[in-house]
Amino acid sequence: MRLQTSTMLALYSIIEAASHPGKQVSAAEIAERYGVSAHHLAKVLRELGRAGLVDSSRGAGGGYRFSGNARRLTLMDVIERFEDIGARSPDPGTAQTDLGLAIARVLSEIDEIAKATFRSITIETLLKLVERARRSETSE
Amino acid sequence: MPGPDSPATPAGSASHRQPRPTIRVRPIEAGDLAQVIAIDAEASGIDKVDYWYELFHRYGTRGRQQRFFLVAEAEDSVLGFIIGEVRDWEFGSPPCGWVFGIAVRRAARVGGVGSELLAAILENFRRAGVEKVRTLTTRDNNLVLSFFRSQGMMAAPFIPLEMDLPAVKGDIS
Asked: Looking at the predicted complex, does its ipTM rise above 0.90?
């Protein structure tokens, strides 16, 4: 499945900041690392700030800091600030046909599994996954 | 499956961990059953006395090479339990450990009890010669799903399927 660019950027931003608890992360560095404009990142950070997940500071040394609870915040909590991943449906013309309803049921099944997955993974769990991947790379 | 370690607190708020008790994990004894039944009832809302006596008979008293029914206790009180077994060639899979029940007393959650129970049963599985552990839970049971995820579990290469039994034999429409 694909998430929208803003959603992915929000996840990257949160993970980067949560991996340096208490420290300010440079917004410019994040924008460059993920190949997005500083303007786009600023919009994403504003939304995360409104949700109480980051504290931002402006100016030349501007950056942001994770202010959520990594043990409780799930990927779904972040994703649903930016998009509704359960909004897929067949074309309007076929929606009420037998075929359209059958396809809608299959799509809904996929969406429910995706949502359950995103709801079950906290930021702390994702950071553990990153750490485990790093350790296995260095041990190879 | 009842819940292990995680309480439901708002995503953005700070959590408050309770002091960690000294936890001992050991095989279940007959005298623990009443507390196990109460912990399960607290989590599931259903008092399943016969079910737990049957499980104790099957998993707590025999077959301890492949079947494990463990409790976590602190200060003579049972805080939680875990139950599982080694299953051989189920669905074509090489022998692996299955956890099919875990629960922690609500007041003892977020104290590492679930983690201790899981670590203990994993050690038993390891000694039984298997290298993988699996579990199954409903996808809306976020408490248990998050717990197993936090312990490093990922999606398995299986898809659970179900259907209502057809009313007429042979009719699957």
From this structure: no
